[in-house]
Amino acid sequence: MAILRTVSLAAAILLLPVAGAGSAEASAFPQASAFPQASVSPPRAAAPTPTPSVSAAAAGARPPTVAGRPVRLALPRPTGPFAVGRDTVHLVDRHRRDPWVPGVARELMVDVYYPARAATGTPARYATVEEVRLYLAALGLADLLPVQALSDTAIASRAGARPLPGRRPLVLLSPGLGVGRRSLTGLAEDLASRGLVAAAVDHPYESTGTAFPGGRMLTCLACERMRTDADFQAATRGRAADLSFVLNSLTGPHPAWHGAQIIDRARIAAVGHSLGGAAAASVMLHDRRVRAGVDMDGTLGEPVGAGGFGGRAFLLLGAAANHPGAGDPPAADEDRTWVQAWAHMGPPRLWLDVDGADHFSFTDDPVLADQIPLPAAPPPQAQALTGRQALAITRAYVGAFVERWLGGRAQPLLDGPSRAYPQVRVVGR
């Protein structure tokens, strides 16, 4: 199994040797991020720095600059009719040891996005300064892009907003290794604006930095230790257990989120990017409560057996270069786990390839990178997606798939080619 694509950011940063990997596998490392690359080095753990409760932009400070030009990053507005609220929840699983630090209980940070009453709450922050600092340092961009520029990214969410009443589906979101939950903010906000609840999970020790209460900052042990297919499979199963625990915590008799009464426990989906996509498939295999799943360009970590997902819906949404379908010429770094899983998946299933996409096209990074005025930036490839196109495709297809299988509403977008998104091809169904 090729673990390298799903390892994504962290493996590309650290250029990890993989046991048994030959030169063909080594070439499968994706670009570390959609952000233009400088020289890269491992992230350094540092004492956390205090961060203000509001962004510098909200406080009226001058925006940071790149190449002498002010930078004000923003995610595109969500497409749905509802305002978006966001609450952050700290969860501790006292019945499970952390797989990376076995002497402590497993704990998670979760951002819960939900449809909210307009004009309630306060502007939410994209990420903490220290989380962003560690991320940019890992990419070798600390001297090029001001930390404040990324942490102050304008988003639609309002912290502490009042949830709208109703019974709403829940979508669990798991990010790629190294990048953290903030990388799926654009998707999470859009799902909430459509009327769903989205819970974006940070899996500790699996991102460049995750901020916890009390000023703790947990850095990426997985980036240093994940070497073999067995390591990758264990991480996939660990994330599946994380997602089940989040589900327990949000839908159990004593829910950890004050707005949990709006969650419909019979309508649950799991969506992930890269390693998070592998986790979405894994939790489908182990937790029957999850009725639908989406893997966005992630190598699968557990084999899908002859029973598939037991009649539950699954979407494979990938970059065409990484997942060529039948009739396409094979790629040197093709991910064969999708082909193997597809043979065992029964309906309902859907495989979509996106022409011009790369591994990180399904995250926030491309749309943010497009807004940075970097000097001597290379010209875009002729067939490459813009960041806005990539985010629009991700939002449209993930949202339609989840609404189809959790809401029971017809979604013509899923029926065939779309004039609005000509880059998307149906490989199989």
**What is the CATH architecture term?**
3-Layer(aba) Sandwich
Rg, Å, rounded: 20 Å
User: In the CATH hierarchy, what is the class?
Assistant: Alpha Beta
Could you name the CATH topology?
A: Rossmann fold
Sheet with most strands: 11 strands, mixed
Strand arrangement in the largest pleated sheet: 5-6-3-4-8-7-11-12-13-14-15
The CATH superfamily is Alpha/Beta hydrolase fold, catalytic domain
Overall average pLDDT: 86
Total helical elements: 11
Shape: globular
Structural class: alpha/beta
State which percent range the strand residues make up: 15-25%
Poorly predicted runs of 5 or more residues: 1-31, 36-53
Spell the H/E element sequence. Answer: HHEEEEEHHEEHEEEHHEHEEHEHHE
Query: How many individual domains?
Result: 1
Question: Terminal Cα separation, in Å?
Answer: 24 Å
> Helical percent range?
25-40%
Number of strands: 15
Secondary structure blueprint with pairings:
Blueprint: H1 4-14, H2 23-26, E1 65-66, E2 69-70, E3 83-97, E4 105-116, E5 122-123, H3 129-139, H4 147-151, E6 158-159, E7 168-174, H5 185-193, E8 197-202, E9 210-212, E10 216-218, H6 221-225, H7 229-251, E11 263-273, H8 275-286, E12 292-296, E13 313-319, H9 336-342, E14 349-354, H10 365-369, H11 387-407, E15 424-428
Parallel strand pairs: 3-6, 7-8, 7-11, 11-12, 12-13, 13-14
Antiparallel strand pairs: 1-2, 3-4, 4-8, 5-6, 9-10, 14-15
Helix pairs in contact: 5-11, 7-8
What does this structure look like?
- The protein is α/β, with parallel strands linked by helices and about 425 residues long.
- The radius of gyration is 20 Å and the shape is globular.
- Helix content is about 25%, strand content about 20%.
- The longest helix has 23 residues, at about 230-250.
- It has one domain: Rossmann fold.
- The model is unreliable at about 1-30 and about 35-55 (pLDDT under 50).
- It has helices at about 5-15, 25, 130-140, 145-150, 185-195, 220-225, 230-250, 275-285, 335-340, 365-370, 385-405, and strands at about 65, 70, 85-95, 105-115, 120-125, 160, 170-175, 195-200, 210, 215-220, 265-275, 290-295, 315-320, 350-355, 425-429.
- The protein has an 11-stranded mixed sheet with strand order 5-6-3-4-8-7-11-12-13-14-15, with helices on both faces. The chain has a two-stranded antiparallel sheet with strand order 1-2.
